[in-house]
Amino acid sequence: MGYKPIESYGVIGDLHTVALVGIDGSIDWCCLPHFDSPSVFAAILDDQKGGSFRIASLYEAQHKQMYMPDSNVLVTRFLSDQGVGEVVDFMPVQGPCEIRKIHQIVRVVRAVRGSVRFRLDCRPAFDFARRPHQVILEGWGAIFEAQGMKVSLVSRFPLGRQGDGVAAEFVLNPGETTTFILRQVEENGHGSVHDGVLLEARLVGTEALTQTLAFWRQWLRKCSYSGRWREMVHRSALVLKLLTFAPTGAIVAAPTCGLPEEIGGVRNWDYRYTWVRDAAFTNYAFLRLGLTSETEQFMAWLEQRAVEGARGDPLQTMYRIDGGRELPEEILDHLDGYRGSRPVRVGNAAADQLQLDIYGELMDAVYLYDKYGTPIAYDSWRHVRKMLDWVASNWERADDGIWEVRGGQQQFVYSKVQCWVALMGLGAAPGRASYGM
């Protein structure tokens, strides 16, 4: 189908990872099990090799896409004279403890008006299309198995092998619904299609949709904003929540990698990590909206980074979502890139840059949380103070600057200003160390 405009994608997620769903019903991006894991679908980076999972009406139709109110449940609708069909996409967030390690995409297909003929095409391409896989057809669907990863697709319609993927055509009568489940189980889990059928019978489909809608709407009720821009603010908050990693509280800058700053350009970076700067700004937004549980989780993650900084090493510009420091950058020469924008990069060498400004943003986040959230514990202040002792000794150094240019270190004014914001911020705290100009 070729490349779609970036703005034609909706996003769904389960607070571990996300999937991008195009307005044509195609999932063109998803990494499993986490944001910074290798991809399962990456057609957005190569429409031939990257892999996708498409469900769409076979009728010539107008496409519409929207979210169910106050949720991250996405509806893609196909409107034609022959009939109106839709695909409801979501990733279950909560459920019984025994399935918490299961990451799954649920696709509920409906014939809204008239009988609608649909086509399903599912072709994963594991590890950015670098890891070959085998297709195993079973009575209730298919299994795609590569080294170290297994994904199953549950379907009540028979699937036919098509190359290294599967396909099916089916008709839904007026008001009829069917559910497809694509799921991947983490290590020590089971991935057979038969397990998926049992899961579907108990939890997926209508019940899982109800649970997922309830989760998002209950979460959004915590938002304190009630002004004239309520709908837009709520939608922005829901997207920011999708970018949080539940196990650690980390916040990713974006869930994608390799997309160009400009079509045909070479600045195609991997943003599936946590920038201290960007996450601090997101944390501020959560605080202003009254979403304090997110700020508590992020501050716990940030405190661990401050503990590391208190040991005398400078903070990194970014970290993995589990707090890891290693982000080796590599170029994927075998991928064409979005609309031919090469090279496609995964990992990010900017993690090794020195960016002194991040201390100012970090201290701003600490100050705001201390004022509007929960007072910072004494031990935490001690870690912050030791970290800023390093800043006081090194603020005059040249650094790489806020924009991560790769032309060498220079004396950036913004970096110096933010260093002093950090130092004066700590000095303003009663009973804490005071640094003078």
TrEMBL record:
<feature type="domain" description="Trehalase-like N-terminal">
    <location>
        <begin position="4"/>
        <end position="137"/>
    </location>
</feature>
<dbReference type="GO" id="GO:0004553">
    <property type="term" value="F:hydrolase activity, hydrolyzing O-glycosyl compounds"/>
</dbReference>
<dbReference type="InterPro" id="IPR045582">
    <property type="entry name" value="Trehalase-like_N"/>
</dbReference>
<dbReference type="InterPro" id="IPR012341">
    <property type="entry name" value="6hp_glycosidase-like_sf"/>
</dbReference>
<keyword id="KW-0378">Hydrolase</keyword>
<protein>
    <submittedName>
        <fullName>Glycoside hydrolase family 15 protein</fullName>
    </submittedName>
</protein>
<dbReference type="InterPro" id="IPR008928">
    <property type="entry name" value="6-hairpin_glycosidase_sf"/>
</dbReference>
<dbReference type="Pfam" id="PF19291">
    <property type="entry name" value="TREH_N"/>
</dbReference>
<dbReference type="Pfam" id="PF00723">
    <property type="entry name" value="Glyco_hydro_15"/>
</dbReference>
<dbReference type="InterPro" id="IPR011613">
    <property type="entry name" value="GH15-like"/>
</dbReference>
<feature type="domain" description="GH15-like">
    <location>
        <begin position="230"/>
        <end position="424"/>
    </location>
</feature>
<dbReference type="GO" id="GO:0005975">
    <property type="term" value="P:carbohydrate metabolic process"/>
</dbReference>
